[in-house]
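stuck on whats below:

***
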Amino acid sequence: MTASSRMVLLLGLLALSGCGEEPDRIVTTETEDGRWELTLEARKNFLRPGESLAIRVVLESLAGQPAATFRDTIDFIGNAGSVNPSRLTFTFIGAQDTLYSGSGVTTKFSDWITYEMSTRGSAERQGEVSALFRDLEAVLKIRIVED
């Protein structure tokens, strides 16, 4: 291989490595103790300014049904846009709770949030939705597409 061929190959590799990867449509994270899994799922990974995107939020207890009933929240933060609602509240029924039994008992919570891309011009090329629950953060990245 000649020096000029090597230079062309090197420049081609550098150009390809500079291209950003497409963001994932589904992002899943797990708490450090392995007890909880949080998933954010969208139908697409890109938006134009002013558009909105429905995102499914799923929280699952990987340790099975909790011993005691408890209520908790998942908070959301939007970058280059806004999230509505900014907080989801859920309740998991504990195994020791005698008021509930049967099919109403679940180890999974699921709901929807909406991310709305900012309408103003932005130098950013990517929006983000961060979901915060206990010791974890799930971040769904959304590519901004200009017209």
Summary: Confidence is low (pLDDT under 50) at residues 7-19. Strands lie at 26-30, 36-42, 46-47, 52-61, 70-79, 81-84, 87-92, 108-117, 126-133, 136-144. Helices lie at 3-17. The chain has one helix and ten strands.
